[in-house]
Amino acid sequence: MDTTRLLTHEIANAVLDAPAPLHASECPVEKWLAFLGHRWNALILWHLKAGPLRYGQLTELLVGVTPKVLAERLSALEDAGLVSRRLGLGFPRTTTYALTGRGVSLVTILDALELWAKGN
Amino acid sequence: MDTTRLLTHEIANAVLDAPAPLHASECPVEKWLAFLGHRWNALILWHLKAGPLRYGQLTELLVGVTPKVLAERLSALEDAGLVSRRLGLGFPRTTTYALTGRGVSLVTILDALELWAKGN
DNA sequence: GCGTGTTGTATCCATTTGGATAGCACTCGG
DNA sequence: CCGAGTGCTATCCAAATGGATACAACACGC
Question: How many whole angstroms separate alpha carbon B81 and alpha carbon B35?
């Protein structure tokens, strides 16, 4: 068995399996920008800046969003550690979303970006 | 002629033509984030931070980028006013890309984002 | 058991988009 | 006239993705 050849092959596979990683960027900044660049994500954070909101309230604020996409975005934001999900106790069931500390600090940067965008 | 009805119709069209604007977000921040979230864009800015670069140099630095996509991105960055294109005089022809003032100030914010990404 | 209110999930699809590949434009030296 | 070097453009395509639409889960009062 040609070990060298096998290793070469494995290495080649390891490399070739990832040439079109479809955004497996090694740069964390680019990764975060890609995430924030997804529609609704930044907007959700911006709305939550003013305080926690329920799912239904977000549906009304984000004009045009569909349930599927909103749920998907909220889930991703939670996974990213930017928002927290809190389940209500009463009836009907409610779910409230709020910024985490990390989310708040990120929004600070987005605010800087907003200022930049407005500046000459 | 029913002016009211016509106006209503026009307004309805103006609204209905845009229900799935495919990212015609009214929020400038979201617009910029979508732009920066496009693959390579932020990376190009980051590389140009160190100084102007030629097209071929960028091709080498951005491993995996195709000519079409790189040209498209550079064009978009130029249109956005973030980079400038300077044509060389000698032979063979050269094109050099550099950050504009606006590009530099944006990279400052991206640096803040990088710090944030690294932070706890 | 049935309607109501809230928060989602399931399924399917048109459109967009990054990428692969090939080729073109321009200028110079020989 | 032809090849070399640099900077792109042209064409086509598979894959991802946002969206439309319908429906499901849950708990409660009546």
Answer: 12
